[in-house]
# Entry
Amino acid sequence: MKALMVYDSVFGNTEQVAQAMGDALGSQAEVQTLRVNDVKPEHLAGLDALVVGSPTRAFSPTPAIKSWLRGLPAKSLQGVRVAAFDTRVDVAEVGSAILTFMVSIFGYAAKPIGKGLVRKGGELAMPPEGFIVGDTEGPLKEGELDRAADWARGIAG
Ligand SMILES: Cc1cc2nc3c(=O)[nH]c(=O)nc-3n(C[C@H](O)[C@H](O)[C@H](O)COP(=O)(O)O)c2cc1C
# Structure
């Protein structure tokens, strides 16, 4: 199985999650883990699985992830198992009623990434997932890297 992990990251937390996923899949697949700006069309050739992750910024993926997804050719992910994840804060912990309301409407980055991948022909292999940072710049909450590794193993089937 050939797998590609594509991520964006501002403070390094999403990068850590992507690396943990790549390591977890590495025993079952030939895996590359790349920052979105480093992905070239040839990296997509012959892929079996594609995982895309972004920090949630203003309820959305980063502009780089959004524009990369938009730029993928139509049907280019046909026959590819796809999955999407984000990193996010725990809204309950922030304790803001307005933020909780906004999140209930606008959500997080993973779901729109998943939709974008399916729009290009991919088959969703796992439901979109979020991994929690303790604060804006991190670190990730305890246990999140292990949870990310387990989630990624589910993509291999
Ligand atoms: C400008 C900005 C907007 C953010 N918006 C959200 C948000 O809408 N929802 C959320 O859960 N976290 C939000 N966060 C927290 C980020 O999700 C957090 O910084 C990110 O998970 C860290 O990942 P990174 O280290 O890979 O950049 C925001 C952070 C910044 C700086």
Summary: The longest strand covers residues 81-89.
